[in-house]
Specification:
64 residues; mainly alpha
Length: 64
């Protein structure tokens, strides 16, 4: 899974990609397994959220 799955799950501007990302995350949540999120993925995801914040798509409270 890449950071794009997380980003698209929140991106209402890309409804087809959003639906696929949500489906993927839902399927993953049904399988009990240890999960590791690499720091780079978390950092890039936060970076995208900050870009949306600067564009007014998200509030700072939503990013935190």
């Amino acid at each position: 899974m890449t950071r794009t799955s997380y980003v698209y799950a929140l991106d209402a501007d890309e409804p087809a990609k959003q639906a696929k990302a949500i489906e993927l995350l839902d399927r993953l949540s049904l399988k009990p397994a240890d999960t590791v999120v690499v720091w780079q993925v978390a950092g890039e995801f936060l970076g995208q959220l900050r870009k949306w914040e600067l564009k007014g798509r998200l509030t700072s409270a939503a990013v935190v």
